[in-house]
Specification:
The structure is a single chain. With about 230 residues, the protein is an all-alpha fold. The chain has a domain at about 60-195. Helix content is about 70%, strand content about 0%.
Length: about 230
């Protein structure tokens, strides 16, 4: 039997590896118990995948592809961009997605400690996801030069909320934070600046120390179309 002669068996093994990693994690994973759970042998795993690192790298890629398909389905619905992001958040914050989120952050941490163990993983965890958000942002009418920064902001904010969810499990509070994120994205620049300014003023001391320097007036950029308007 050759590797090329049994791609179906290899693919079946990879799917089982993904399920095993989702259940048991990456940190203490070793080939012998993995092989026993899959009813195969360490030798066969190495035969198909070459090394433990390559096996894990492919399993992480397969798991990430699952999440991307779910997100793509959310974006394909005929709804406003805000509603699409809400649907994607419902998928990502669900109990069913919790294991996938754990795997994502575990792999992220391990790769940051040892980039050579998972070469290219950190870059892919960002660059493989950005196009989805860039497409949504561009379709909402954001200026081309601002598409990538805005998409980066949304992706980073969502990942922060996911990490908070894993750490605290406070679903209601974090869902509320996501709704506030959508509200901020829907604001025009002038309204957003006003909101931030008012927040700073409320949190400042009642009798601030006077400054000897005059405060320079800054021009406020003209508002653009709402980021999350309906197409």
């Amino acid at each position: 039997m050759t590797r090329a002669a049994s791609p179906e068996h290899r693919d079946e093994l990879l799917e089982k590896v993904v399920e095993y990693v989702l259940k048991h994690g990456l940190v203490d994973l070793s080939l012998r118990p993995l092989a026993a759970a899959l009813r195969t042998s360490p030798r066969m795993l190495l035969y198909f995948f070459g090394s433990k690192e390559q096996l894990l790298a492919e399993a992480l890629t397969r798991g990430r592809a699952r999440q991307q398909r779910e997100f793509a389905r959310a974006l394909s619905t005929k709804r406003s961009r805000g509603e699409q992001l809400k649907l994607a958040w419902e998928v990502w914050s669900s109990k069913e997605s919790k294991k996938s989120t754990w795997m994502f952050f575990e792999a992220f941490t391990l790769a940051m400690r040892d980039r050579k163990r998972f070469p290219g993983l950190l870059e892919r965890l960002v660059k493989d996801w950005l196009p989805f958000f860039e497409q949504a942002v561009a379709a909402a009418g954001v200026e081309p030069e601002r598409v990538k920064p805005v998409a980066t902001f949304i992706l980073a904010a969502i990942r922060g909320l996911q990490l908070d969810m894993l750490a605290t499990g406070e679903q209601v509070r974090i869902d509320g934070a996501f709704r506030e994120l959508l509200r901020l994205l829907a604001l025009q620049p002038k309204a957003l600046i006003t909101l931030i300014s008012e927040s700073i003023q409320r949190s400042s001391p009642k009798n601030p120390r006077p400054s000897s320097q005059p405060i320079a007036r800054r021009s406020v950029p003209k508002p653009h179309r709402h980021l999350l308007k309906k197409r």
